[in-house]
Amino acid sequence: MSREHALDDWYPVADTVLPQIRATRLLDTDLSVAWDGETASVTGPDGTAYPAEIRFDHVWTCLGPAPRPLFGIEEADQPGRRRVPCGGVRVRCSPLRAVENFLDIAHFPYVHTGILGAEPHTEVFPYEVKIREEVDEVWATKVSFYQPQAAKSAGGATDIRYEYRVPHPMAAVLYKTCPPRPSEWDVIAIFVQPVSETVCIAWPWMALFDDTSSQAELVQFQQEIFLQDRSILENQIPAGLPLDPRMEIPTRADLTSVAYRRWLKRRGALYGALTEAE
Amino acid sequence: MTPTLYTHVLDAECYKVRLLAALLGLPLDCVAVDSYPGEETRSEAFLALAPAGTLPVLEAGGLVLCGAPAILTWLAATGDVTEGWMPQDPAPRAQMQMWLGFSQRLSATAGAARLEAMFDMPAPEGALAAAEACLRELELHLAIRAVDDGAWLVGDHPCIADIACFADVALCPDAGLLHDEFPFLRHWLYRLRALPGFLPMPGIHPLHELRAG
Amino acid sequence: MTTFPVALAHDLPPGRVQRAFAGGRDLVLWRSASGRAMAWDNRCPHRGMRLSHGFVRGERLACLYHGWQYGTEAACAHIPAHPDLAPPATIRAAAYDLAEAGGVIWVADEGYADPPDMPLAVMPLRSLTFRCDLATLAWACGLEPAPLLFLPEHPSLVIAPNPLGPDRTEAHVLTAPLHAADRIAAIHQTEALRRLAEEAAG
Ligand code: FES
């Protein structure tokens, strides 16, 4: 049931950093992905050819009969931005848990200590969350947090402003104060490949203004942060994302997560979710 | 002159070097190498520096050193005024060498299993089981050391072999190999993490209990 | 059996936290700065993080994910994201009864912990896990399964076994007071026992 609904979305199955042939798995289906630097192909175990689309420096595919349109990120092609695909990281957790963690700020002081947060600056100030019906996306705005080193390009500690956007059950985009260009947002996204309901591959990606850092430095700044999350994600129980409000206890700081869970339920995007209390 | 370290933030071998430098208070000029996903370690420029195509690499003046054991040895020999990190007497020095050798077994097993679990880089067959056998061996050694109140692998001060073994052992949970059944290992990991100047890395979080609430 | 030996008391000093298992339950086991040991469900009520990854500050256990703190009565005492909020009393971890006897920490998966009578003057040796069931471990000792195994061949060794499943059994091993050389010999005996049991288990 839940897999059927998930089949009609697009998912990343490889990055386009280097030409490669990659054996991988999506929604419990084995796939072979080939990328030669110009075109990509995605093939199933029985030889079925699936559609392949290149977007945001990744190869995306859809296994279902009626693909829903893949979302856009306007800033991806904005002149002057550097696009930074960060490689895939396998995590033993539900793809939905990986997205929810990306939307969370209260963990910064404990999990990203000294980078995205630090005690005693733990308070999460009120922010706004809504489902934008016209685009059917979850948005959190007016989020702010004290950060010791918000970005590679940040000189020191600053109060950082955030906006979060969930355009897809397994992808989220973060718009964040850009230290070298206060009038622009840095864009950081997470695209999640659901391998199964309890295993996923996360593909962090960024589009930034930064004229000084090397590509390797930018990639590693983001990899460090995501790998700090990985050890958390592998230790949340149950592995699936509980949608029954009785199973976990949110607070005001978790409004984005609450809206995300509701939005998933309403959409019927239940692959990787647990709908009933254990 | 500050030595240059070519490094990757998720690489356990590089972490060993950065950790010892942090504990000794030695500055390093770190140059990030995009080994994943960019495979920069296969580039002509990198291969000219390090023909094996592996990290870490340290450059100091005209000296180029490849691999964690050599770099740890050099850092301790040149930067450790206390001389505690590299015992000089023949017996402990040879024991240290033995555990440095053991650290290579750890990285070939536990380290490889971790890279497979995180990045789908194929590990040798049986790496995880062999890693577990290594953990049992280390646990036994630490249990015996504890009979005489020995807290470290050799002698009464941590040595570079403690650092060399620490990284892969501490990161085992990344590969799904947990520390739960190894109490002596857990105590040893904790002692290392509690050292002044300790440097965390993703998968090895700082001891928040030691900070003010 | 409802009371399980989960650790040697000596392996859990004040201010430390670890994972433990009792009768199929995944537990966090921790000891406060003042020395009180506790066993709770290994799951933070907030977002399900294993509390065994957390950290102890004074008389509280904090979760690693968002730093929620729980006091010795298992109730949530502090939510760092809302420092001025008094957490509702309903937010609590599920606690299990725990007793320390004979150098071993015992936990009841339900009701009160009721440890067996422990011999006097035993010293902790080590805890180790066997990849076999309890019956095979007992067989390797030349015994039938029991809450305490007194090794006939090694009169100074006592094992408190904790069955975790068909292929995993914890052995918490104690000895009479011994000299260093004999303690080391006893450690090697536990290794030999494990080899014997695991070979038999295949
Ligand atoms: S999951 Fe424990 S504090 Fe959030």
Strand content of chain C: 35-45%
Strand adjacency order, main sheet of chain C: 2-3-4-9
Task: Look at the structure and name the CATH superfamily of the largest domain in chain A.
Answer: Naphthalene 1,2-dioxygenase Alpha Subunit, Chain A, domain 1
Largest interface: A-B, 30 and 28 residues
| Unreliable residue stretches of chain C | none
Average pLDDT, all residues of chain C:
96
Q: Describe the global form of chain C.
A: elongated
Mean pLDDT of chain A: 95
Q: Total strand count of chain C, please?
A: 15
Radius of gyration of chain C: 18 Å
The succession of helices and strands of chain C, N to C, reads EEEEEEEEEEEEHEEEH
CATH class of the largest domain in chain A: Alpha Beta
Question: What is the assembly state of the chains in this entry?
Answer: heterotrimer
Head-to-tail CA distance between termini of chain C: 27 Å
Which consecutive residue ranges of chain A, at least 5 long each, have pLDDT under 50? none
Helix-strand topology string of chain A = HEEEEEEEEEHHEEEEEEHEHE
Write the layout of secondary structure elements.
The complex is a heterotrimer of chains A (278), B (213) and C (202).
Chain A: H1 2-7, E1 11-15, E2 20-26, E3 29-35, E4 40-43, E5 49-50, E6 52-55, E7 58-61, E8 82-85, E9 89-91, H2 95-102, H3 108-111, E10 128-132, E11 137-147, E12 158-168, E13 171-177, E14 185-194, E15 200-208, H4 215-233, E16 241-242, H5 255-267, E17 273-274
Parallel strand pairs in A: 16-17
Antiparallel strand pairs in A: 1-7, 2-3, 3-4, 4-5, 6-7, 8-15, 9-15, 10-11, 11-12, 12-13, 13-14, 14-15
Chain B: E1 4-7, H1 12-24, E2 29-32, H2 44-49, E3 57-60, E4 63-66, H3 68-79, H4 90-119, H5 127-147, H6 160-171, H7 183-193
Parallel strand pairs in B: 1-2
Antiparallel strand pairs in B: 1-3, 3-4
Helix pairs in contact in B: 1-3, 1-6, 4-5, 4-6, 5-7
Chain C: E1 3-8, E2 17-22, E3 25-31, E4 37-41, E5 55-57, E6 60-62, E7 69-70, E8 76-78, E9 95-96, E10 98-101, E11 104-108, E12 123-130, H1 134-140, E13 149-150, E14 157-165, E15 168-175, H2 180-201
Antiparallel strand pairs in C: 1-11, 2-3, 3-4, 4-9, 5-6, 6-7, 7-8, 10-11, 12-15, 13-14, 14-15
Helix pairs in contact in C: 1-2
The structure holds FE2/S2 (inorganic) cluster.
